[in-house]
Amino acid sequence: MSEVAASPIPMPAKRRGAQLAMLAFAVAIVMGAYANVGLAIDGQIPSGMLTYGLSLGGLMLAAYLVLAKFAPWADPLILPLVTLINGLGLVMIFRLSESDSTLPSAKLASPSSQLLWTFIGVLLFSLTLIFLRDHRALQRLTYTAGALGLFLLVSPLIPFLGQEINGARIWIGIPGLGQLQPAEFAKLALVVFFAGYLVAKRDVLALAGRRLLFIDLPRARDLGPVLITWGVSLGVLVMQKDLGSSLLLFGTFVAMLYIATQRSSWVIIGILLFAGGAILAGMVFNHVQQRFEVFLNPGDPVLFDAVGGSGQLMQGLFAMGSGGILGTGLGQGHPEIIPLAFSDFIFAATGEELGLTGLMALLMLYALLVERGLRTSIAARDPFSKLLAAGLSFLLAWQIFIIVGGVTNLIPLTGLVTPFMSQGGSALLSNWILIALLVRMSDAARRPPPQAIQNEGMTQVFQR
Amino acid sequence: MNSPIKRAAVACLVMFALLMINVNYLQAVRAEGLSEDARNTRNYFERYAVQRGRITAGGKVILAQSKEASGDFKFLREYPDGKLYAHITGFFSPESASGIEAARNSLLDGSSPDLLLRRSIDLFTGEPTRGANVDLTINPKAQKTAYDALRQSGKRGAVVALNPKTGAILAMVSLPTYDPAELSGTDKGKVFGRYDELAKEKSQPLLNRNIDRTYPPGSTFKVVTAAAFLEDDSSRGPDTVVDAPQSLALPGTSVRLPNYGGAACGGGQVSLTFALEKSCNTPFGSMGMDLGYDKMREQTEKFGMGQQLGIPMSVAKSDFGKKEDQAAVAMASIGQRSNQMTPLQMAMIAAGIANDGTVMKPYLVHKITDAKGDSVEEAEPEELTEAVSSETAGKLREMMVSVVANGTANQAQVSGVQVAGKTGTAETADGQPPHAWFISFAPADDPQIALAVLVESGAANVGAEATGGGTAAPIARAVLEAVLNK
């Protein structure tokens, strides 16, 4: 009896109180930032502050209640972290819209629609938690998810459905609702597919094959379906000129392959494939080549003035340089100068006003979120959960690395949204669903295994 | 599966570490370079984010002010009478400035250390920083009169008037002019395009002809030669008889220096006063040769030549010319050859004589007050040089009065006031019309104003016949009348 009570595995606590306190703290920080923007720009607390505060607070309370009811053992940090990041994004978009500049970054920033999307995002988060009681149901949908992912990727190319905006055909029109970027949802479906497929095939992928030099080569037929999926998705993305998503999917896929098989040969093959693809793309597509030139020499005056040149990137760097260590303070810089300050470049805009200090804190929030996801993966009890949680966490981390690295000129710039911050509904919705999946899995992972009924001494439950 | 997951977790941490290091590199190491990059338009917004101080004349008339605006720029610069004061105020463009706008920029935009106390108080009271106001010594009436009179000549030129007792600049007009508002807008493309246009124009409207370039001073320089001649021997005076041949042999050359128009100068032996009245070349050429290069140069330096002046805009250096042969000294002594003076320098010569031989340092800024009206800086007249003794100054004054009363400058006469002056007609190049000069001060017994007028070669209304007496003196008279209220 006492042995059961003194179980070697410490029972994870629910920590729901701590989560509620952190959630309140996150909402409070966001409200403080709102007030800061208003005071700096108009000298008064923004008039919509109460509405914003109440809606965000109420929304998060609702999310908390759903989580407490339907995933009581879930990781307590994930929701507050996402709340804070999403809230800071809302504040930056609000701040840009408050600028009386006539530049597009100020005109196109729409805090009300972003708040609405956040609302829908939290709604989807809740619905996912309510209806997906056991995420292993997804494993049965492996091939359905793969087909869905592919369809979503291709859907913008379908006549009448697809729409081209700003030269990229990555949108589909939904009558009465506006546009969605199906690729944002496709990546979730594809990660589910990869997880299910790799779990089923991981033994053959890991063990069968020939050794060539130092690399274990897998059998071609094991590789087939994966390569085809990868190739098709990559091809479609390249055709849509969406380099960011293409890099994102590819990297996530390689990482999941490595985690499933534990063979570093996959990483090497992946890197070689990527290098080959990059060189090929550089030769075939001018815009890829130009991106690379911009990356190497962003300050070049000719590139700076060129269409599709380094002007945009440099404006982001200028903003971050002007922000310096402490930043100008919310509402006191000129982030509206940066093109796409409300979406791809929201990180640079934040850097101008919150400075190095703010960006370090923001990166820390993202890092914590990713590591909580990976922790869920380690704690998970079945391979599918492990692989899915790791895949989703890596997807998040890799996405942040690609876009933030691109904006800060650490790597060539490819357009991607900054998760939970960039203006735009599709990414916000799909990321909230991603978080719901992580929360669902962390709940399963942290939920104590069935206990022996204490007063029935005769029955023993053996724990593995 | 846990060990590859742990490795993936480490890989994620490495990615975040790379991002963090890179952000540190950008915002700590490279921050200054990035924020100061010329293409970083934030600096340009910052220029318009502060309410710049006003530039006023005589404490009342507004020459430049910042008006609150809506849009990307909080304050826009206005110049109510732009063209009239363009060369004084200068412009305030997105990336540069000129004139007082540039010379007193740190006070106007409030960033000067002199305003530290004000800024600290504002920080506590929560008031936005505002720039200091700059009041100039300019007399708006004199400025307007000089501008109108010079414009009537239809040509390029310069007028600068000083208070001889203090060095305060009362008027400073340069034509052609421009509208500083056109160069002070926030539309970079428009402003830079307009600037290029102005910069390329042959008439050089951006130039402040009073201080930015030098001209041969012609006969007006004869007062300096006369000053050196009188200083050389205190027994000499206005009645001292000097040789005045019809033409003067220039040693070492086959050329002879004639008088203006080849005319005779009296009977060949004339008084110094007569030589100055009629502006004969030969007596002053020979005086210069007798005194020699060193004495002539020294006398010119005593009038302020060669000093690095800032009024506060920096003034081009005037120069008597290189040391060459005696012929060159003779030519330089009548204001030709390589003798090059700014109009301001010539006004200072007149002012020095008016002020009993003491040249006062010229200045434009009368007073600077912070946004609350507290004084930050107030001009104190400073002696620049002791040009001639008070006796010599008296003798020169007597002769210059005579030039106006009886000589080439009768068009500068103002009824009821004794005006002293000297005309000049400077040859520029063969076949080119001459520059017309006039320097003057009045009233002779208690000088309130000293000035120099320059009309560049070939005034439209007078063609090749432009002379100091006919073209420049009437402009001077108008300004004298305006300042003396006649």
From TrEMBL, chain A:
Domain of life: Bacteria
Alphabetic keyword roster: Cell cycle, Cell division, Cell shape, Membrane, Transmembrane, Transmembrane helix
Organism for this UniProt entry: Nonomuraea cavernae
GO-annotated biological processes: cell division; regulation of cell shape
Entry annotated with the keyword Transmembrane: yes
Stretches that traverse the bilayer: 20-37, 49-70, 77-94, 114-132, 141-162, 182-200, 243-260, 267-288, 345-366, 387-408, 420-439
A GO CC term assigned to this protein in UniProt: plasma membrane
Topology of the protein relative to the lipid bilayer: Multi-pass membrane protein
Cellular localisation: Membrane
GO molecular function: lipid-linked peptidoglycan transporter activity
Record bears the keyword Nucleotidyltransferase: no
Pfam families, alphabetized: FTSW_RODA_SPOVE (PF01098)
InterPro entries the UniProt entry points to: FtsW/RodA
Protein name: Cell division protein FtsW
TrEMBL record, chain B:
Boundaries of every Penicillin binding protein A dimerisation domain copy: 52-134
Pfam families for this protein: PBP_dimer_2, Transpeptidase
GO MF, one example: penicillin binding
GO cellular component term of the entry, any: plasma membrane
The Penicillin-binding protein transpeptidase domain, residue ranges: 157-481
InterPro entries reported for this sequence: Beta-lactam/transpept, Beta-lactam/transpept-like, PBP_dimer_sf, PBPA_dimer, PCN-bd_Tpept
Any one GO biological process: cell wall organization
Name used for this protein in its record: Penicillin-binding protein A
Organism: Nonomuraea cavernae
